[in-house]
Amino acid sequence: MPIATLTPLIAVHMTAALLALAAGPVALWARKGRSQRPRLHRAFGYAWVTLMLVTATSALFIRDFQLPNLAGYTPIHLLIAATAFYLFRAFQALARGDIATHRLTMQRLYFSACVVAGLFTLLPQRYLGQVIWGQWLGWL
Q1: Which residues, 6 or more positions from 105, have their beta carbon under 8 angstroms from its beta carbon?
Q2: What is the pTM of this model?
């Protein structure tokens, strides 16, 4: 299977997703434990939210007509709506002063949208999976 082309859109999407994967733990860690760092939490939190919005928005324009799809949208595209919904829910909880719901929502969103979705990108038929596994299998 030939490796797909890295378009500017995919490059933006992948860069934002990888940066969100890295920024998320810093935002989550900055509010844990005895020594809390609210400025660091807020800075990395806003950066993470921005990166997630860029990732979700760019994903709207990435279509795949080879996998099972509906007009080029595959089941992984459902994460776009889920990401938007849970970001809204997290900020709604924050506005109400419900820190526990905000924290839990953001933790779950990080895990599902960054970690789980990130693992799905490593499937052999997806672009990043082709790059990584194609390179790795080429070394054997």
Answers
A1: 86, 89, 90, 93
A2: 0.85
